[in-house]
Structures are given as C-alpha cells and as structure tokens.
C-alpha cells in the first residue's frame, strides 16, 4: 500500500495522515523530517539543505528528488509520503520513477482548505503549559480555549513563536497554493490523471476532525 498526502500547513494533515498510516502499518516518509535528520547528523546533504530550509525555500530538486526516491525504495512496509512532491516537476519525476520501478500508487489524499482559514488556524494555535497535545485554538470554535486558559485542564496558554510569524506562513502558503508550478500544480497533476490506477480522495478541511476522519476511513478500503 502506497499513499500520497497533500494539505497546506494548518489543514490537519498530520492527524489524518497518521490515521491512514496506522490503518495499513505504513512507513511515514516525510521529506522535511528526512532533511532534519541529515542536518542533525551533520551529513554533506544536510549541510547543503540547511541554508535553503533556514530561508524557508525549497531545497533544489537535484538534492531532494534522489534523496526521497532512495528512501521510498528502501521501504518494505509500503509508505505514506508527506511533504513530497511539493512542485509540478517533483510530481512528474515521482510518477516517472514509480512507473519505471513498477511500484503501484494506491491513494492520493488531498485536504482542501482555503488559504485564509489555514493561516488563521496556524496563528490561532495555543500551547498548554501542562500538555502540548491539549487542543486549543482561538480560530476554531470547537476547540476554543476557556477564556485565556486551556480548555482541557485550565493550564496557562502561550503561542509558538513561529506560528505568529505571518510572513513565514505566507511564504510556505505561496508555495503550497501555487497552481502554476507549486504544490497545487502537483495536486492537479494527479487529480486530472486518467487511468491512473489510484483513487483520489478529497477531504474538506473545514469540517471537524472527527467528521473528516470518518469520511477518510469510509474511503479507504
Ligand atoms: P516541512 O517539515 O515539510 O515543513 O519541511 C521543512 C523544509 O524542508 C521545507 O521548508 C523545505 O525547505 C524543505 N523541504 C521539505 N520537503 C521538500 C520538498 N519536497 N522539496 C523541496 N524542499 C523540501
């Protein structure tokens, strides 16, 4: 079982991706995490990638594409690929590589969320002092904090610094929502494909987490 998942930062991609990954016992292959591992290990690739990552830019394809394809090839369990492809070129190269290796793609999942809502959600995230997993978001009514305290335990809340950096959020979203050559172009590349052999699943990211989860489970065989 091999799955691609797309969704802008702030769409709940991590939550829904985990669900799909756990259902089939897949390897979670996350391009950003692979880069972070290389940087942590001080590898040559990590050093090259670091400067781009720190600027919030995409790492060049001649570094990224072989690195991701290599990890995919070493997966025995099947994979959930997250964070790649992020551009039309990467989408095409991935498809060519899968064809060449005779690897089947089973599902492509897209979480749709309007850009302004994704941004409001990121900026609305609040972190509980007692437990980072307590959901609190001033931009999502279903998980709004209790006044200025955690809705679960009453703990003090704070905002993550990087969540409040509007220009960094905009930069990431510029890449994601770019329909000409960016991530939305990659999404459309798969969505418009005929006789692809995979099922394309569209999720409405504006719905509640439970509703999205139930719909996703109903779509996966
Ligand atoms: P992420 O953890 O997905 O936000 O990725 C962190 C950073 O790694 C991104 O901001 C990019 O600089 C780089 N990166 C991750 N995936 C890709 C990709 N598919 N192509 C190019 N750069 C990537």
Description of the structure:
This protein is of the alpha/beta class and 221 residues long. It has one domain (2-26, 77-219): Rossmann fold, CATH 3.40.50.300. 47% of the residues lie in helices and 13% in strands. The protein has a 5-stranded parallel β-sheet with strand order 2-3-1-4-7, with helices on both faces. A two-stranded antiparallel ribbon has the order 5-6. α1 (13-24) runs parallel beside α9, α2 crosses α3 (44-55) and α5 (88-101) packs across α8 (183-191). The radius of gyration is 18 Å and the shape is globular. The model has no long low-confidence stretch (mean pLDDT 95). The structure holds adenosine monophosphate. Adenosine monophosphate binds next to α2 and α3. Adenosine monophosphate (AMP) binds next to α2 and α3.
Keywords, separated by commas or semicolons:
single chain, 221 residues, two-stranded antiparallel ribbon, 9 helices, 47% helix, binds adenosine monophosphate
Architecture blueprint of SSEs:
Elements: E1 2-6, H1 13-24, E2 27-30, H2 31-41, H3 44-55, H4 61-73, E3 79-82, H5 88-101, E4 107-112, H6 115-124, E5 127-128, E6 157-158, H7 166-176, H8 183-191, E7 199-204, H9 209-219
